[in-house]
Amino acid sequence: MKLESLYQEIILDHYRRPVGRGLRAPFDAEVHHVNPTCGDEISLRVRLSGSADDPVLDDISYEAQGCSISQAATSVMCEMLEGASVSQALERQAEFLSMMQGNPPDEETLGDAVAFAGVAQYPARIKCALLGWMALKDAAAQAVDHRTKENA
Amino acid sequence: MTLNVSSNDVALPIDVERIRADFPLLGRTVRGGQPLVYLDTAATSQKPFSVLDAEREFYEHHNAAVHRGAHQIAEEATDDYEAARRAVAAFVGGTFEEIVFTKNATEALNLVAYAMSNAATSGESAERFRIGPGDRIVVTEMEHHANLVPWQLLAQRTGAELAWLSLTDDGRLDLSDLEVVVNDRTKVVAFVHQSNILGTVNPVAPIVARAHAVGALTVLDACQSVPHQPVDLPSLNVDLAAFSGHKMLGPTGIGVLWGRRELLATMPPFISGGSMIELVTMAHTTFAAPPQRFEAGSPPVAQAVGLHAAVDYLQRIGMSTIAAHEHALTGYALDQLQQVPGVQIIGPSDTVDRGGAVSFTVEGIHPHDVGQVLDDRGIAVRVGHHCAWPVCRRLGVPATTRASFGIYNDYADVDALASGVRAAQAFFGGAS
Lengths: 152, 432
Description:
heterodimer, A: alpha+beta, Sufe protein. Chain: A, three-stranded antiparallel beta sheet, 49% helix, B: alpha/beta, Aspartate Aminotransferase, domain 1, 2 domains, four-stranded antiparallel beta sheet, 36% helix, globular
């Protein structure tokens, strides 16, 4: 059975007990992303703090519905990126995306998220794993934009 | 006909083993050498050798541009193409001129929707198709996006309003307000014959009667009915109907619009270009008679030839036999799935007025994960909203798992499905 290679224990754990769930205020940007092929949805908010040059993700909060892969990937992402700078987060996002494209992951930087490496073998599930990460990338960009305009 | 088959003691009307030998794909293995259990025929059917051979034979011996060319093979290609039209017409009870080949059923439905907005600038003869502000378009909450979005866009283009018949909790059409929804400003009522997600077979007669009482056109999405039961479109009294080749053992790349001859005669064209003209000058064009008026550009000739072979194959088995076969499988599947704790059927839970698409949810497990476990066991189902997102929203589920049956399925396939669902429950045991 290949199932266990897709559904690593970390994935099932995060699916059962997701981290960071629930929309929180205040926030600097909120995005809503959907996966139109399967109907998975996420609303994700980010709150920034720190320097304008490289702000820190002070809070990532979300409400989502979807399969175990999309829910667990978002949960692992939240756990990993809480307190990271926006530039670090975008680097992780790029690494995660690269892993989904079948490239070998860097375990040092991706941590628990390497559990999703097996998803790359199932093309239909890649978008599930990316749902939260793409929402975060979008929200972070909007939040930075928002703060830049406010400070201008 | 047996109404509710709850055991597999009743022999299926079709000798499945013999049928499967005609379908090369069903002989392959998946996911590490397991036999394939194909339960996704509502998405697309598999193809018998005779369909594949017909396409190949056409390309090897008769391939030429149809309706032109002063040579022998052009005549042969044209004969093959038009013979397919005659076969498809006979299959649904229509006549030769009433069959328009399109690239798929979606295009057939768009053809009607665009013909209706084009009618505004098409002269008096197109009066019947005109629609504008204050007029109404009626659909149902059960539609595939292909029979919903084109009508939403027609409403936007013309200023007409969109209204719909809603669903009951058990996945049937609520016709209690039919006379209110289909009001006297209604110009078109478009509805699905058999739901691709719920399996529900809708009562055509009362809807058509009400539509015609107010002078509205009726458009039937017959994609899931024509491949699975005897359908005589003229006797259903609808005005236009669409179905697809690839869901009825035929090739992809071909769909069918059927329309009453007198209606097609005055319907404005949608896609324009070569093959659909009568006379062309630099400033002006007149159009060919139907069906050519609606077949601009190179038509799907090899696909039509394949579809002809598919129709022949279905008719050799007999559509009543096919319907009885799938009815028995559906009853057995409903029964087996409902015996699994935590499984809920989305759609009618009995076999009355119901086809062989069985959607369900499994408590605590997302359909995508159910589908993944089934796939791991070689069972192919569809998961998601099935291009009928409003149905999911109405019934309060984000998505479903759907098993759908064809002539090549048997009770053992249903057994594999039910044990696969139990395996998913075991795998995701603690998930909430």
